[in-house]
Write a structure and sequence with these properties.
Elements (H helix, E strand, L loop, with lengths): L12 H24 L8 H11 L4 H5 L8 H44 L5 H68 L3 H7 L17 H18 L1 H17 L8 H15 L1 H6 L15 H36 L12 H33 L1
Amino acid sequence: MVAMPNLTFEMPHWLYWASLVLFPLAAMALHQRTKRSRQRPRASLGIGYLLWATGGFVGLHRFYAHSRWGLIYIPFFLAVLFGNAEVRQARDTLSSARRDLQSAEFDVDYWSRQLQSGTENAAGALGDAQNHIVGLQELLTQATEGLARWEGIVGMTALLIALLLLIDAVLLPGLIRRRREREHERVLADPTEEEAALHAGESMVFHDERPLKQRLEFSLTVDALNRFVGEFVGYWSVIAVFVYYYEVVARYVFNSPTNWAHESMFLMFGMQYLLAGGFALLNESYVRVDVFYANFSPRGKAICDLITSVFFFIFVAAILWSGYVFARDAVNYGEVSFTEWGIQYWPVKITIAVGALLLLLQGISKVLRDIAVVIAARA
């Protein structure tokens, strides 16, 4: 009898930390490459095979290739989900039947000893217990057969999906090639302004029309640092898509929930929140009660920011010092989580101090700008 396999993959600690560093770097490089490209994005065979490997069981690779035959995967996938729900219910029923049978066997043994010792009514109680065992044995047999039947249905459906995927693995290059041909025909029929210029051999020059602002060298360096860090940790959100996608598939398709997906992601988002503080201050992505502030002149706003910055630096200094203490203790003791996964906590604690330092530098940068505004307004 064919049954769905269980997924036993557990995220290694080294792979988790490496992905937090390497994935954003690769994504940033790919983004820059895409920005430099002046053509419409083309269908990629690599992306097609990535979708085939990660979401092929619902036909994502077919949909990416603009093939309606991807719909054929949907009913088979729904059958797997329904079958797995029945498998879980059958396992619960089987476990309950085994537990009740053990209890009934204990009752039979107990009343047998009572009958031998001459206890009154022991014979009737023993007969009832024996009859109960017969019924439970029938229930156990039915539950075992039901579990095997549903595991077989799910397994055969999964094999059918796997067969379709093997066929599509061979057909996918042709599907992507035909999509590219259709896209090329649409470009020729309805080109964008940039594409029309490229086809005409014209060079396009893009100008940054944003007003230039005088910036202190220190502020410029801090801005670039926090902008890079903010963009870097922003790509971590994409990692969460893949991790939770794996968790959902493992849990509901293979009945194999993980013990690391949720913990790894809430730690990642906690580090993201801490490291992006300077980026948020740089872009003023925070809540400001500006009932009066909005009506101030630029010089008045700068003076107000300078006065209230005292409270900001007290707050940041407290975070920086406490973060340093937490990080130092975590490194010295090799702190790990108390969960079964047992991930290292010291990198997480370090981000408290690093995030506070980035926020402090951005605060100093803003103070220097405000001082420059006040001086320029007086001049």
